[in-house]
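Hi everyone, sorry if this is the wrong subforum. Our group has a chain we'd like a structural model of before ordering constructs, and none of us has done structure prediction before. Sequence below.
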Amino acid sequence: MRLQLLSFLILPFVTFASQEDQIALSANDMSETYVPLTQSQPTIADLLTIESSASIFYSYARELELSSQFVDPHAQNTLFVPTNKAVMALARKPHQSAVSDKDVVLTEAEQDALSKQNVQHWVSAHIIPHHITLATGEYLTLCEGQPISIKEVTAKSGSPAWTRVVLNKGIHIISAKEASNGIVYMIDEAVKLD
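Answer:
Right subforum, don't worry. Here is the predicted structure as tokens:
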């Protein structure tokens, strides 16, 4: 009973205080109609967000500045994204160093910087910074000195072009999705760094 009475006494003060913080909009503010941005196709970031089998690759990529290209409407990137299964099958995870020297002691900041650099190299090795046609040849990736080679192979006639190629002598494309700012090819193995 006392609690109800107390709430009735305090309620007018609370509502008065909240009215002071409110700003009235003029008629001029209401005349501008909000127009949402729309696109005819999703961006690379949109595709990677909804593609559950690409979640590990995308979680690594989101940590990097280069992921801003995934939403850039002017970029035309070609991504070769390893499936989660392919990433989990790696003997050494993308953030780990190739050489493990147990005698070298690194600070936590140095370990973080090295880990980020390793992720940068690994993610960059899966991105070609322009649209390609999947013709036989070598294509430079964002990772310097780490090209992706594509070779045409025989496949069923009438099958999509991405089923008729092999990357780096054995990596197969398992699906392709077109984005407004590039294309995402899902691959069955991660690109190996030299």
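For your construct planning: The CA atoms of residues 126 and 165 lie 16 Å apart. The chain is about 30% helix and 20% strand.
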